[in-house]
Amino acid sequence: MKYAVITGASKGLGEAIAKRLIQEQIAVVSVSRFENDEIKKLAWEKGLFYQHYSCNLSLEEEVQEVFMEIAHYIFQKNPTEILLFNNAGVIEPIHMVGHLNQTPVIRNIQINLITPILITNLFLSKAQLTETLVQVINVTSGAAVRSIEGWSVYCSSKAGLNMFTQTAALEQAELNSNHKIIAFSPGVMDTNMQETIRSSTKDAFKDLEQFKEYKEKDLLLKPDIVANALIEFLLSGNLESGKVYHIKDLLK
């Protein structure tokens, strides 16, 4: 049996990934503050295992507690494979350095970088004692490799996630492990994050009009298209551990 653990599965890309995985008969563990009833219903209709865990991913102790419970439950089932999607992310604060507030800065780094590190560490640690294959998919951003004014914290946290992915993959290769870890940049999608970006101010984010134009001209990718391309690629077995993949590479 294959299991997938998805953070931020209640909406956007996470929701689309969960629905596609259920269609592929892969058991889904959803982690977010709120449960998505459509995912629950779809799993029930397919007669497939599904479990939701409520978790505030900005709180370290809560993350440790919830994911210890998840890992214990899944690994005792001796699954053949676990797909771990570190998908949850936040873009705030959107503002120039010198005008940043401490709380959203810390929350951004916690959710975008620290939490994926903690979860990945936990699952790879547990996997050492089993024959379960673990594949980690860290959802990153083009902002990880491109400086964008007003996004200093987001760019930095995603750049850190890319480096963590690459370094962890090197370590697994040194151990002759079959576990794989990749980063995936989904491009500019029509999600709540885009709504947050469009609601910012020109003073905080000088490229505001460009992002409004993406929406007006229907240039935003649909989450289900991105999720389908990602899952088809993962199921192909062709992923290269340590690599940062971009959606445009998968939609060719």
Overview features:
single chain, 252 residues, alpha/beta, seven-stranded parallel beta sheet, 9 helices, 7 strands, 48% helix
Structure description:
There is one protein chain. Strand 4 (81-86), helix 4 and strand 5 (133-139) form a beta-alpha-beta unit. The radius of gyration is 18 Å and the shape is globular. The two termini are 31 Å apart. The protein contains nine helices and seven strands, in the order βαβαβαβαβαβαααβα. The chain is 48% helix and 15% strand.
Distance between the termini: 31 Å
> What is the helix fraction of residues, given as a range?
40-55%
Number of helices: 9
Strand order of the largest sheet: 3-2-1-4-5-6-7
Major sheet details: 7 strands, parallel
Q: What is the arithmetic mean of pLDDT?
A: 93
H/E series, N to C? Answer: EHEHEHEHEHEHHHEH
Structural class: alpha/beta
Rg over CA atoms, rounded to whole Å, is 18 Å
Spans of at least 5 consecutive residues whose pLDDT stays below 50 are none
- What share of residues are in beta strands? 15-25%
Shape, principal axes of CA atoms: globular
Overall number of strands: 7
Quick synopsis:
By secondary structure, the protein is α/β, with parallel strands linked by helices. Helices cover 48% and strands 15% of the residues.
